[in-house]
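Entry for the shared binder. Reason: the reviewer on the internal report wants the predicted structure included alongside the sequence.
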Amino acid sequence: MSEEIIIAGFGGQGVLSMGKILAYSGVMQDKEVSWFPSYGPEMRGGTANVSVIISDERISSPILSECDTAIILNQQSMDKFEPAVKPGGLLLYDGNGITRHPERKDINIYRIDAADEAAKMGISKIFNMIVLGGYLKVKPVVELENVRLGLKKSLPSRYHHMIPDNEKAINRGLEIVQEVQKAEAQEAN
């Protein structure tokens, strides 16, 4: 098993921390893991993305030109990373602020309205954990128990009081993710 993931959105949406929690979860599951962040100098409000690779085998490079999964949280990231998803791969996106929805027919597309759900729950900081829960429903690359351990490992101890809210958000993401499209079968030449 090898899963190459790109998570992309605005700085401040929890893109890097979502990737870090996913990476730590893989470590807790005795997987080989790579976490490779990229963000502009403006950070909060600018674009940010992170590549995460979780594998049973050694990882030769953390740099991805294409991915198995793209988790997209804003329009700029949709424009940039939709073409990078391998045929048959997964694109999961939050509909908030998306003006051009995914157009490819050869990938699996799921939508999660995590920003709206976080607002309903009254805790905007858990937005990224709702998204993570939705992703893990569609592709359970790590076990939920290891995600809980990953949360404890990646969050500073002063934020451990928020772990129950984060777990609630993950569980909510498991419930609200919606399939938009299954990849069309590719014809053999």
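Summary line for the report: The chain is about 35% helix and 25% strand.
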